Amino acid sequence: MQQLPGFMKAVVLTGHGGFERLELRDVPVPKPADGEVLIRVGAAAVNNTDINTRIGWYSRGVSAGTAAVDAAPGVPAARAEDPGWTGETPRFPRIQGADACGRVVAVGAGVDTARIGERVLVEPVFHAAFAGTASAGGVDAGGVGAGVDRRPDAFRAIYFGSEWDGAFAQFARVPAVHAHRVTSELSDVELASFPCSYSAAENMLTRLQLQAGEKVLITGASGGVGSAAVQLAKRRGARVYAIVGVDKGAAVSALGAERIIARETSLTASLGAESMDAVVDIVGGAQFPTLLDILRRGGRYAAAGAIAGPLVELDLRTLYLKDLTLLGCTVLERDVFSNLVAYIERAEIRPVIAGVHALQDIVAAQREFLTKRHTGKIVLVPPP
Q: pTM score, two decimals?
C-alpha cells in the first residue's frame, strides 16, 4: 500500500452564500472506515446541486430559478435554517462534488485489498442501507454521522458531496459498494463527466420506461443532464426532441436529437397538442403547463431539476383527465449506475466536455457554469 499524505487540498463550502463561501484549504486526508474505500480523485465535475446548496436554493423560502438567486446580493438568514433537499438542515463545513473518477488507494476493514489500484467511478447516491454503516467524520470531524436518518427506506439516501464529503479534493472516502470499477480508455476528465448527470438522466428514462420508437421531449438539452438524456434516449431507440438555445442546436443534434426546438418557440404550435409520449424536464418554470399539454393521453412526465424556477402552475384537470403520470426522480433505481458503467465500457455513450479548470479555480468554473452558454460538463482537476 502506498504511503499517503496526512493532509490534502480541498475546496470547502463554509455555509450558504456567494463565492466567498468556497475556500481552498489544507484538511486531513480521510481514513476509510469498515466497508469503505479511499480514492485519489483524478477529476470531478460541476453540477447544479453544488450551486443550489451553496446559495440555499433548496430552501422552501426560495421561488426563483438558480441563476436569479445566485445573482441576488446576500442570502436571507432564514434560508440557512430550512431543511435541505433530504429534509435535514445542511451541515457545514462540507466538501462538495458529486462527480468523481479516481483510483482506490486504501481500503477499510472488510474490503478486499485487491481493490487497491482499481480505477473507479463513484455512484453519487448512497442508499441508506449502505451509508448507515459508515462512520461519522468529514471536514473538521463533522461529516455524515449524527443527524442522518438511517431508516432502511428505498427513498432515503445520502448524497455524495451534500451529506457526505465529496470530490472537490485530492482524496475522498466512499462506501466500497458505490465505487464501481470501470475499464475504459477515456481520460479521468472524460469519465468524471458521467456519474451525476448521466445517472440522473438514465434514472428518469428508467422510471419513464421509455421504449424504442417513442417520442420524448427533453428540456434544457444542452446542459449536463439534458445532453446525457439525449444520448441515453437515443441509445434506447427513442425519437428525441430537444429544447435548446438556438446557438446550441447543432451540438445537440450531433448527440442524437431528431429535432431541435428553440427555447423561445411555442411548443404547442411547433409540436402539436398531445404529440409526445414522454417528457424529461430539468428546467421547470413557466413552461410546465405546456409540457403537460403536449403529452398524449396516458403520457409520462419526469422531473429532476427546476433551474428556471421550482414553483409551477398545475391544472389538475389536465393531470387526471389525460391520465398522466408525473414522476419526481432523485434516488437512483438499483441497477441504473451499474448499467451506466456498462454503457461507458461498451462505448455506447460518449462524454461531452465543455471546459476544464484546476480545482483551485472553482469560482471561475461555477461562473462559467452559470452563464449556461456551454454544452455538456465543466470539469475540475485537483492538484496531483
A: 0.90
